[in-house]
Amino acid sequence: MISSSRVAFSLVILSAAIAAFSKLLKNPPTKKKKPSLQCIVKEEPSSQCIVKKQPSSHCSVDNKDMISELPDDILILIISYMPLKCGIRTSILSNRWKNLYRYLSNVKLNCGDLLSRHLLEARSDHNSSLVFYSLNRFLKLRSGSEILFFRLSCCLSRHQFIDLISSFGGLGVRTLDLQPTLESEFRFNSIQILSLSYVVLCDGAVEFILSNCLSLHSLRIVNCDCPSKLCFSGPGLRLKSLYIFGCGDLEEIEFYADNLVLFEFFNHVLVNFVFKHAPRLESVFLDVFNENVTPFVFGKLAKDLLNLKSLTFTKDHYFKGSIESMETDMFSKLRRLNLSLISGPRIDLFTLIPFLKNCPLLEEFILNINFLENEGPEEKKQAVGLHSELKKVEISGFVGTENEIEFALYILKSAVGLEKLVMSKCLSIYMGTINCRTRSENRWSEEKHEMISRRLRGQAISETAQVVTQYAAHFQDKWVVEDDVKVFL
Predict the structure, then answer these.
(1) Model confidence, pTM
(2) Is 458 left (phi over 0), alpha (psi -120 to 50) or beta?
(3) How many secondary structure helices (H) and strands (E) does the chain include?
(4) What mean pLDDT do residues 114-125 have?
(5) pLDDT of residue 486
(6) Contact 429, 455 (CB under 8 A)
């Protein structure tokens, strides 16, 4: 397939060729040509032949540059599909194209865009002064035009970066993605979404950001060098979403945020979370590689966040003991639970039932299972429960063991309001807002697939329940299934 950037570039080249050809037709090169002669014979009394010279007529051709006559919005859209450096070069095509690139709403810049090719090839360490000059010149050209998204990834020094802040302020930038070293205060009143990737955050840097980005409602900190403690607080703080991924030196996070609704944490080690004041925090995602997170979830987290409505986390092999120590109705307001049981010895899925009973308002339950052993407890289980609010259940990594089938039967017989139960062979794990991972598996055999369907058919206590078995769920809509799906009531 031809990439969109190549199509856009081809259109611009075609426009330039048409413009040049039109100019050539309007001003053809002058050449000395012998005048064409036409003989006009008139009868004269002297019977002489009179020859008169008459120039031959030329056909007038009206050639137009059709692409340049397109509306500005379409031409700007064409330029937006091109690399920024190529988009700027369109300004030399004609007066019509001269200023169009200045109205691009999404801008992504790096050192390669700001330095000429011979400078990039001549030295591996870029000259930050030249980068600063080129970037400042570009921002001055954009003065007065609105930028919705601006990404800056370059090698500026701290002082040069500070000097550019005033230029950003005049552009009304809404979303700013910074990837230089950040070590000082800056002020962006229009910023609503801020992403910091591979940034060095010194002590107090986060506080400076929060106090100077008064409209900030989403903050993402990814693979950054952080101090041991981060504090998210401040008067009038509007922050609603916070994402922290891969910040290894971090030891403690303190929250005093009135408007914080969503928090996602993805790291190698668990840190000390101090929820001093987070009354609206209702959605939490936790994934910690090297530590057991379940005691924290069933202990401090449940006690500190009484209004929690959505919980996503991954367990280790200590999961069973943690459930047994749970208090009654510990998650009394939880509506959505996404639980991944992976990379450990197989456990009896019926140990999850006390957890589900302690979530009386649970409406959606997503279970992802991937154990080291392929087989588990084969004896039939007898469990009684009532889950009046449970409507949607999805199980990915469903191999079809006796224990898995018995657990699915328990769901069908205890969820009186169940709308859909989906079982997928492929494991699908939510990895935070960054991505969602799936792992390919061998498909069920026809006999296995038919056996699962036969065991579950007609077992639902809910009259509206739909049971779906499929190979893998789609990322966009987990309730849309593939071709090999079997659906039965």
Answers:
(1) 0.62
(2) left
(3) 15, 20
(4) 54
(5) 46
(6) no
